[in-house]
């Protein structure tokens, strides 16, 4: 019996493996793209209905402009690598929400929220491109699905999402919001170390392709480090220590610069 269970689990994991663009890392995904997109649309609209959109036309236009440039870079890269199918069902949307939180996030399907509280740290379009490149990369890399899969295994023994939500429909929405770091302070630092580093990597490539100098990512994360008063030591946190993150970004800079063409 144990062998049968082990075999079934192995088959489930094998069937649920996907590959992250650029890094090529294999990841577990027990939640289908269609489930993620449906949930994202529902939760995004719910979030907007409960939030106050910014009335600052200039800042709102900047968020949409930078977001759309990152979007087009992602679409271009995925087309060049024959991976456009991974963006199937995406309906991009960029909104600026009036909130003091130092946060931004992107749901699967390209649903983005930026909080006004992060704008003093981004300072300009380049800084905002660092944030949006990073957050959109979490979605492109399917980190939300990966984290939900981890939750399904840890809390529900790997049960299908439909099985879990059949007993409690609100579970899926709560899991998604947790998985994408929505609504939490410093949500930019909410994923695992590996996922954060991966989003930094992809984000540098996408912002460079969009015409934003990836070198500005260093100064942005230095400002974030100052905001968090130096951050938490890496061994006590799920995200990279500030100094390590900046060092990793500098190491990746030569690769990112290959994609950079100023606009």
From TrEMBL:
Keywords: Hydrolase, Metal-binding, Metalloprotease, Protease, Zinc
Pfam family, one: Peptidase_M48
PROSITE patterns registered for this protein in UniProt: PROKAR_LIPOPROTEIN (PS51257)
Gene3D superfamilies, alphabetized: Metalloproteases ('zincins'), catalytic domain
Protein's UniProt keywords contain Zinc: yes
Any coiled-coil regions, as ranges: none
Listed cofactors: Zn(2+)
Keyword rRNA-binding: no
Domain Peptidase M48: 69-251
Record family assignment: Belongs to the peptidase M48 family.
Name of this chain's protein: Peptidase M48
Organism: Hymenobacter cavernae
């Amino acid at each position: 019996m144990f062998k049968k269970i082990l075999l079934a689990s192995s088959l489930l994991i094998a069937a649920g493996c996907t590959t992250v663009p650029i890094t090529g890392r294999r990841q577990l995904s027990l939640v289908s793209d269609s489930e993620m997109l449906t949930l994202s649309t529902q939760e995004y609209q719910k979030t907007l209905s409960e939030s106050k959109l910014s009335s600052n036309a200039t800042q709102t236009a900047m968020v949409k402009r930078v977001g759309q440039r990152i979007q087009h870079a992602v679409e271009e890269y995925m087309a060049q690598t024959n991976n456009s199918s991974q963006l199937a069902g995406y309906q991009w949307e960029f909104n600026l929400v009036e909130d003091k939180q130092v946060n931004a996030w992107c749901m699967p399907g390209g649903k983005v929220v930026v909080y006004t509280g992060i704008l003093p740290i981004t300072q300009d379009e380049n800084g905002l491109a660092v944030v949006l490149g990073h957050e959109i990369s979490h979605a492109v890399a399917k980190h939300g699905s990966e984290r939900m899969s981890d939750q399904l295994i840890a809390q529900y023994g790997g049960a299908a999402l439909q099985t879990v939500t059949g007993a409690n429909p609100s579970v899926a929405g709560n899991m998604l919001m947790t998985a994408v770091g929505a609504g939490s302070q410093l949500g930019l630092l909410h994923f695992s170390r590996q996922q954060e580093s991966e989003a930094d990597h992809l984000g540098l490539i996408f912002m460079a392709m969009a015409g934003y100098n990836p070198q500005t990512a260093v100064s942005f994360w230095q400002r974030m480090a100052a905001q968090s008063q130096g951050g938490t030591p890496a061994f006590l946190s799920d995200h990279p220590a500030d100094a390590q993150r900046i060092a990793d970004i500098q190491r990746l800079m030569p690769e990112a610069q290959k994609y950079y063409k100023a606009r």
